[in-house]
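User: I'm putting together notes for a lab meeting next week and I want to include a structural view of one of the chains we've been expressing. I don't have a solved structure, so I'd like a prediction I can at least talk through. The sequence is below, exactly as it appears in our construct file.
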Amino acid sequence: MPRGSQRCFGLMIIAVTAMVSGCTTVGYYAQSVHGQWDILVRSRPIEDVIRQPETTEALKSKLKQVLTMRRFASDVLSLPDNSSYTRYADLGRNYAVWNVFAAPEFSLTPEKWCFPIIGCVVYRGYFKHEDAQRFASRLEQQGKDVFIGGVPAYSTLGWFTDPMLNTVLHYSDEDLAGLVFHELAHQLVYVKDDSVFNESFATAVEQEGVRRWIQAAGDASRIDAYRQRKNRDREVIALILEYKERLSRAYASTNSASWMRTRKHALVDELRMQFQELVAPWEGYDRFAHWFAEPINNAKLVAVVAYHDLAPAFEALLTNHAGDLEKFFAAVRELAALTKDERTARLKALL
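Assistant: Thanks for the context. Below is the predicted structure for the 351-residue chain, given as structure tokens.
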């Protein structure tokens, strides 16, 4: 099927779903269709953008790097070889979408929303921040913990040609390469109704891909710096997950709501202090500073778990296959064919 036909087909699926759903769902799908269409019509081939005389030298340099990363993804990492990230779109805003996460006040079991094609996920995405805020307000009125996370880029799982966006071009070269590898990993393997599996797999591919990309450039100092930064990230994430488990145990108690609310606030305050102590010796490390500076609740913790909870298990699986990506991807596809409980059990066994 020609690429243009694929775009129309994908939009038709979303539009038909909207027509047979309730009014609230119709509004949600309508903004999704409009937002995705706006990105597609803004996108232009990167090579055309580079050739334009009005394109700044800084933008040309960054986009040339993107094309190099894109070729590396397919040629070296065996990620999908298609037109994604060969086009560029300037959205005129800081984020592509805003994802709304929610969880009960005394639970770390996330709310889920189910959609055609992608299945059930632990967030609901909006192309306008004000729309995300309106939806979040309704959830807060129901007593939910809510978190709105700005998302610089995302994957349409191969349904559309995903362009490189202006929202991520301020990234370092390592982080930009990681984003390309992460989003293409979603196109390679995606399991309906299992956000933690999908995001943890893509995170593991991202980190291994960046390591190999830097190694191919032959700059040992960059490899060491990237490895140090990622090791520190892991320590912060491990700290967050530790407190997530401590909160879970508190919520599982038979104590009163008042006790749990007090305990929740105390653990969040303790988490902040532990973070400050952890990063104090790390000169120049400012990652997660913004995350900790803003309110922390169950929904915010859910967002971290979705991306990182099982990533170390996927890293162990890759090690078990001696770093052979083709064999690793085959093993991931085998896991994807299992039930959710079965594949989660097997991944946790790898830890």
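A couple of points you could mention at the meeting. The first helix runs from residue 3 to 19. The CA atoms of residues 72 and 204 lie 17 Å apart.

User: Perfect, that's what I needed.
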